[in-house]
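User: I need a structural model of Multiple sugar transport system substrate-binding protein from Cohnella phaseoli for a docking pre-check later this week. Nothing fancy, just the predicted structure tokens so I can convert them on my end. Input:
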Amino acid sequence: MKRRWNGRTGIAIGALTLMVTLSACTSSGGKGSVGKLGREDKGTLKVAYFNEEAFFMQYGNAFQAMFPNIELEVVSTESVFDAEDPVAEMEKILAEQQPDAMYLTEEQYASLAGKGALYDLDAVVKQDEFDLDGFLPSVVELLKARGGGKLYGLSPSFASQALYYNKTLFDQNGIPYPTDGMSWDEVIQLAARFPAKKEGDDALAGLAPSMSVADSFGLIRSIGEAKGLLYADSETGTVSIASPEWKEIFQSVIDGYKSGSIVMPSDGPGKGGMVAMRSTGGSKTTVSFGGDSVSFMSGKAAMTIDGPMMMSMLDAVSSGAIRMGQSATSKDSGGMKPLNMPQEIDWDVVTIPVDPSQPDIAGGMGLDSVFSINASSENTAAAWEFLKYVNGEQLAKTGSKSSPALSARTAYKKEGNGKNVDAFYALKADTRSMLQTLPNGFAESFSKLATEQIKKVVDGTASLDDALQTLQTQGQDQLTKAKADAE
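Assistant: Understood. Predicted structure tokens for Multiple sugar transport system substrate-binding protein:
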């Protein structure tokens, strides 16, 4: 549905991944440059977005105030979120709607840039002297790495992780706090120093998985990537999981799963981590977390690896803005049972664990969203003005106070109430692993297979050597099939 919108209603804080496209009836300059869009210029911006109301609240109303004669039209991109292949679905929208600019996920940006569908921004950035120096260098590096060496988009925010730790639990057990730049081996050893107990109200683990980790292979994969290891190579078509290096990582994490020093995620996304968040006004929003990440927020784990959303959740729980509970099925529970969470957790963060061979490189860094211009656009002036607005200082300043996202502009770092938020900004992105593209569906099927084998080793029904050999053999079959299906 297309219509002009003048309403001002709220949107959920969780709507962070969005799709945006534009078209404008304004003049453009020659190749490599764009014309200027004046306040009195008339035209239409055609915007593809998952939700019309959210678009105008977040961008449209303010942009229209800057350019009052530009009419905004919104075309829904909800189909992208439900599509089996989001990149292909986005390509379909481009072909049918012919937008001038796009708000893309990182994966869509990389794919479309590789297919020549995006406009090279280097010339217009220089033309307008757009301040790229104000952006975190790693964000610009990521954009160029995903663009094959060229800048095809701008990202107002980025995704990064840090190591959260519960000061109280460390103090109670006489264990020194973690520090910036620790290796994965050091963090796992630190987790093992806690008196692990798997069950009951006083359950305690040293390390809990990230909210984004939905299976027991996720932590192992992250450690391997930090060490520069690949479990599969799409170019050569080979799986190499049964190596001594991978075995050492599997053994270390599985030992933690067995002892209880590391929380082993429940099977499937969100299992064991479904929580209900009740606002002080009485309304309820249900949020599904991967695995058992709620362990850290409930004071049952000393450390966890996570992004800035965890910071916002902890602040909200501590302030009483939300109450949390595990989903319950008993009739007298009202659908939610309390987590017996402490009133407030005394926490802080340090940098995500690194590999000693490259101590300034971090895994877990990515782009929340990327704004790009269609390479075939004839209306680049309006599209470029929109990109500048969305990636400008004013929105960055506002977002630093209201959004859980990390601003790409370093002058507007997220406020952390005295916490070490620099941990999210301190390390460079691992661009090597990002250049590895696996066939569609392979990573998911391999993770499922790995999770099954890890469970067998933890349960004692299979040896690690046998599990790795199964992963090697069946994983190779999966990769071969996935590559054949993609051709």
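Before docking, keep this in mind: Residues 464-486 form the longest helix (23 residues).
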